[in-house]
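In this supplementary section we document a worked example of the pipeline. Step one takes a protein sequence of length 309 as its only input; no multiple sequence alignment statistics are reported here. Step two produces a three-dimensional model, which step three serialises into structure tokens for compact storage. The input and output of this example are shown verbatim.
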Amino acid sequence: MSLFQTDQTQCYDAKGQIIPCTGTGQDGDTRKGKVWPKPRFIEDEEIVTDRLTNLIWARNAGLSDFPLSWSEAFDFVKQMNAAGQYGLNQWRLPSRSELFSLVSNDRINPAIVQSDLFFNLFNGYYWTATPCARYPEQAWYVHMGGGRVVKGMIHGFYMVWPVHDSSFKNNKSGKSRILPQNRFVLSEGMVVDQATGLSWLQNANILEKEVTWSEALIGIEEINQAKKAGYQDWRLPNIRELESLVDINTHSPAIFGKHYFKSVRPFYWSSTTSSYQPAYAWTLYTQDGNIGVGYKLHPEFYVWPVRGE
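The serialised model returned by step three reads:
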């Protein structure tokens, strides 16, 4: 499960103004993650293949014409398969992580990577196939205007953007990640994630308080200078790295390998600024796994250092 970079290349101060990236420790500075293939997408007349994920997307992101309930969304996909839409018959609702893979951290309205390849994109919510572990009557959806990942009632009405690959059968689980059996290894105060190559501080509350975004970045610097955690190359994770810890099959916290970590807090800063509102940064809410934003000047989020890759 190699993680890929975000497409954020600029850096911002706490008020949302663009600043030079060098030495900031922000996402646009560190550029951590797998480099995208070039070109990332292969465009056909009616479909687009993402070479990064090996997923096929309909170019028409508004095939259903109007919003559907969650059950209606599954029925709609079944109808697509019965009709052999675009010559393919294993269309399905994308999992949460799959739909999130299209989200851009550089563009807005729509917040979609290379949105010009698609049409009928709605700058609102799209269903995923992933149910919410804590609330069975809710499921996950993604806001295509800004990129937030939130949960809502399954009888709500949202748009449908089917995905296809030949190795995945239609189902409602949305489980698309292949993970090693022994994913985590505890080593000298850190937890090594063998699925991503990242190492996380075992103490998930190293600063022991909620901080502003700037304080989070400075706090990481101080940890490195003092060798407080045994190493000097800790950093604030980008939002893709934080999202990689989310286990959508559990909750409170919705974190893979949660028994390996100490003092997991309810919400964490990422190093990725929200392009939708640059005075905000992307954040992870660990109780259920929501991906949202936090106002940079408010001391309301915690710090979970990462290193590697």
